[in-house]
Amino acid sequence: MIQKVQFEGNHLFSAEELLSALKFLRPGQVWNWNNVEADLENLDAYYQERDYVAFARPGIAPATEVFYPGIVLRLINELGDNSYVAAGLLFAGAATGIAAMRRHGRRRGLAWLLTWLLVPVPAVMILAAWSGYFFGIAHVLHATPPLLLLAGYGLSYVGERMTILPALPYRVSSPAILFAAFWLAASGWICYRHRNREIVDWRGAAQFLQAAVREGDVVSAPEIHPLLEYYAPELARHRAEDLDPGPGSLLREGAARRIVVCYSGLRPDPCAAFRAAALKDAAWARRDYRGLTVFIRRKQ
Question: Quick check: pTM over 0.85?
Fold first, then answer.
């Protein structure tokens, strides 16, 4: 994830002017090398339009999210479906499984499972850092089955060692019931935490925009451009950073409509001032989606 964009050594134009030429490299956006190359071309064009032949191409810092100290906690949290409780139960079961396999002398099987789990994760992280590609939990999910296998082995071992209710069948011993109870409690807590969270209709809004946007339209979606462009890549050609509640970009030659997409879940809300003014201005048409509002204004 891009944390900061900074210019050094620029004397002809201010940092604010150069930032205005960028369409993709913004704080909070997903790092993508193709977007870097595209914005370098935009900077080239910015200088050439002002009668300068070229500019000194800036050095590109490597992707740093992989080496961010919080990446381990984020991985653990996402493995538990964004719940540290569920992740804790999973890792506790896996740790018990490791101890049980060592006790039973199954070292070759344990080595195979640990290799499956531990080798791909750092390998993928190193590859992501080398390529500059965004690192996500989906990239290491193929290495997570050993966690479940180890947790299952550990649960089976505990069930053999502890039987608080001997009248129960062998395979439903009290530790298994206890673990299941903890898991159900964790699942209930996750549902409780998510009960009031509104599902955002990214796909629906993006599909509407893809069908509605035409040449001459300017689309502003503060801090959520990558999410919309994931479903509708063509929107990248119309991207702009314009939250003027008035005509704004429509004053430019060739602009036909302004479209502003506001997401209600951001804090602080970059659309707050724009939304308040646009809702009072009849020139802005409005279309609502779950968690999103699309404002459209035509050139007068």
Answer: no
